[in-house]
Amino acid sequence: MTLRVREIATPAGMARAHVERALTAKGTVILGHGAGGGVDAPDLVSLRRLVADGWCYVRVEQPWRVAGRRIATPPKTLDAAWVPVVEALTNGRWALPRPLVVGGRSAGARVACRTAATVVADAVLALSFPLHPPGSPEKSRAHEAALVLDSGMPLCVIQGGRDPFGRPEEVRAALGDGVEVRSVRGDHSFAAHPEDAFDAASAWLSTIGG
């Protein structure tokens, strides 16, 4: 596998895409990081093995992270940066192959859900979707994930069984039968068993591949 890093200009500053390509790719997975970490999160690193499954795999660093800031910018800014990154990776000379699966972990999953229709994705993969702030189930973000389902796209949520931002059963109850929810060991970070995230993602992606 060959890792190439591409810098992409966005309205929020320079983003950075870490691109790994299979020799004969059957599709592309583009994932963003969370609000408190970067592309070296254990689950995002574990998913690099998707290249061996025949996928192009891209981890995207948002401009705030590239600039060295510690605090994520507001959601509208994150969305405004994400869209041109995905467009740059799927058009022109890069033109990574379809089907196109977008997603991310935590805040990155929210960004992907909100913008999936805009970037004309084929499916969304959400790692640790933050359904609600810890201890505040009334502040649901289910409507963001529902945008994917309303657009007719497949949505897979890989959720830790002890996630304080929403356990797997909460996600299922909030989004209904249209969402594929895969429960894995751990809490919001998957740090102890990142391989579980890969196993769940690989199994689901086998139903999406071109």
TrEMBL record:
All copies of domain KANL3/Tex30 alpha/beta hydrolase-like, residue ranges: 26-197
Name of the protein: KANL3/Tex30 alpha/beta hydrolase-like domain-containing protein
Organism, scientific name: Rudaeicoccus suwonensis
